[in-house]
Amino acid sequence: GENVEQHPSTLSVQEGDSAVIKCTYSDSASNYFPWYKQELGKRPQLIIDIRSNVGEKKDQRIAVTLNKTAKHFSLHITETQPEDSAVYFCAASLGYKLSFGAGTTVTVRA
Amino acid sequence: EPEVTQTPSHQVTQMGQEVILRCVPISNHLYFYWYRQILGQKVEFLVSFYNNEISEKSEIFDDQFSVERPDGSNFTLKIRSTKLEDSAMYFCANTPAFSGRSAYEQYFGPGTRLTVT
Q1: How far is CA A73 from each of CA A17, A20, A21, A68, B50, rounded to the nearest angstrom?
Q2: Which among B116, B117, B48 has a CA at the least distance from the CA of B86?
Q3: Of A3, A1, A29, nearest to A90 (Cα)?
Q4: From the CA of A29, how many Å to the nearest CA of chain B?
Q5: Is pLDDT above 60 for A15?
Q6: Residues 21-80, chain A, touching B (beta carbon < 8 A)
Q7: What's the pLDDT at B31?
Q8: What are φ and ψ of residue A70, in 5° steps?
Q9: pLDDT attached to residue B88
């Protein structure tokens, strides 16, 4: 089955700086890569996604890049704000299920 | 904006008891999933459900688990004889459509925290 690795496990950044989270996947047939943000005690919330026919996607301060050859994808958050503090999960999908990474706890220092 | 809802928010049960977790999907969504998240760990896929049957299930989803959509609206996960290791947050998720080998966005409910004592 699909195996998703995510790094780093924790990330502390100064407010206004950028944050980058990287994920790798094992199944080259996976074709959908969403990113979820989860605040403490709340549901995972879809923040951005990318399909395998696209190399990059941006939504305001958030961007995702995908390298199909290397089987890795990354989340970039620019101009971080305190409300960006949360756990971020990457996932890969082929078909019906999402396979999640272990998560990255992002702390934005004011 | 419509959201997936789940009940109860927290369920405490004794080992060996049966529990039923309920999910009310977004009305036009056709594909349903259950995931679980043990405290501090990653979200894990349990099962997907479409057209009143299971589409795919994980190794976790053994004979103790079952899903159904009894009334065409609620989507339920039943655990027949709970074990201590079933303690986790259980999330329901839905997608509006699925086309061939392409996947669509999955929207998660708020979760049910199951505590088995």
Answers
A1: 20, 10, 9, 8, 29
A2: B116
A3: A3
A4: 10
A5: yes
A6: 31-32, 34, 36, 42-46, 49, 51
A7: 87
A8: -85, -10
A9: 97
